[in-house]
Design goal:
Blueprint (H helix, E strand, L loop, with lengths): L13 H6 L2 E2 L6 E2 L4 H10 L9 H22 L6 H13 L3 E4 L5 E4 L6 H16 L6 E4 L8 E4 L11 H19 L6
Antiparallel strand pairs: 1-2, 3-4, 5-6
The chain binds zinc ion.
The site of zinc ion has 8 residues, from loops.
Pfam families: ABATE, zf-CGNR
InterPro entries: ABATE, ABATE_dom_sf, Znf_CGNR
Protein name: Zinc finger CGNR domain-containing protein
């Protein structure tokens, strides 16, 4: 695996983990699925293994990703859903033919109709996005407080007051910035 590809951001919500394959949308954007093989890798990590992906399938995946991002953002700010984003999400959901399969260990697995069917995997992601945008799951869509990020994330905290898409990146950076600002204002008290 070439080391120069950016890492994946792993979350526990499929749809927003997927939208997080593009980060810093309002800054220096980082594309985390720059090649079809990286989409194959991402799908494998997320329980949707396929054995190949074409450039056209990668393009479709990115179109779905940005449509989910737009629809999730509109939901977070209580705006109307853009019709074009809804159309792409629905088309992907309808096209997918993945089946949920129960394992003896009581886990759910996804069985795709064929190992090269990226569209099936995208259908699962689209259905997951529909679930959270429709408000079916316990949580709230919110936007990351980082001005260069503004990623939509699914807040499942008790208080529903999570501010960052990811504590280890955006949250940490903000904490450091605040610390540095305090230190400049009050150099003796901040050690
Ligand atoms: Zn963020």
């Amino acid at each position: 695996m070439p080391a120069e590809f950016p890492d994946f951001r792993l979350g526990n919500v499929l749809a927003t983990s997927f939208t997080a394959t593009l980060t810093e949308r309002h800054g220096d954007a980082v594309e985390r699925i720059p090649t079809p093989q990286r989409l194959v890798d991402w799908l494998a990590v997320n329980g949707l293994a396929v054995d190949s992906c074409t450039t056209a399938q990668l393009e479709l995946a990115r179109e779905l990703r940005e449509s989910i991002h737009v629809a999730a953002t509109a939901t977070a700010i209580h705006d109307a859903l853009p019709a074009s984003a809804v159309q792409v999400i629905n088309d992907c959901s309808i096209q997918g033919r993945a089946a949920a399969v129960l394992t003896p260990e009581r886990n759910r697995r996804w069985r795709l109709s064929s190992a090269s069917c990226v569209e099936d995997a995208l259908g699962v992601i689209a259905a997951d996005a529909i679930g959270i945008i429709a408000g079916e799951r316990d949580g709230r869509l919110a936007l990351c407080a980082s001005p260069t990020c503004r990623a939509a994330f699914f807040d499942t905290s008790q208080s529903r007051t999570r501010k960052w898409c990811d504590m280890n990146t955006c949250g940490n950076r903000q904490k450091k910035a605040r610390f540095n600002a305090n230190q400049r204002k009050n150099p003796r008290s901040a050690k």
